[in-house]
TrEMBL record:
Residue span, C4-type zinc ribbon domain: 204-238
Taxonomic source organism: Actinotalea lenta
InterPro entries linked to this entry: CT398_CC_hairpin, Oxidative_Scav/Glycosyltrans, Zf-RING_7
UniProt-recorded name of the protein: C4-type zinc ribbon domain-containing protein
Residue ranges, annotated region (Disordered): 69-96
Pfam families: CT398_CC, Zn_ribbon_9
Top-rank lineage group of the source organism: Bacteria
Regions of compositional bias (Basic and acidic residues) in chain numbering: 69-85
Amino acid sequence: MTTAPVADQHRLLEVQALDTRAQQLDHARRTHPLRAKVAEISERLDEAERAAAAARTVVGDTRRELTKAEADVEQVRSRAERDQARMQSGGSAKDVQALAGEVESLARRAEALEEIELEVMERLEAAEATLAAATESQDRLTAELASAERELASAVDVLDTEATQVAAERQQKAAGLDAGLMALYDRLRGQLGGLAVAALRGRTCEGCRLELNPSDVAHLTAAPPEQVVRCEECGRILIRGSAR
């Protein structure tokens, strides 16, 4: 049978209140709504970064394609210019006729290549617009994430400050309490989800909120004040006659 000074038993309720508040603060820190906001923005940012990377790849590939198309057009034009110059320099009628045919063929080829070049230029323009939009989205989300992270850090700092204050007050309240009482309290906290002690209000245990039967209440109230009593329903330490 555990016994402890009545004052220690009543002070244990204050320790419990502080431990409960510490649990609440820890839960609030771990589940703060801003954490979900940060995670959601971070996920969107990852998607935007992937989209921007894909867009950069398309732009790079299309630019290389345009460079090749421009080179193909330039090659055909240069050859046509050389053939035109040869035609103007004179020669046999047969050579001139052959060169004229080639120049005409090169003109058709240049026209076809220019159409390809134009089509590639249009695709490049569209790809660059897509990249610009993806980059803008990435930059915006980066700024949003930084802002949300600052908000979260500020909110956590407030909780941490209170948690530090609660821990210091708890240490002060628990100092000098009966060792056997504290050992029982710590063991029950681990078994009962953190709530190990509660006040008895009339016939009601404020831990489990159940009303005890009259015979149990009579047994509890008849026990010596120094005796540490437990709730018959939930097993928590009951503090009798508490003004809390």
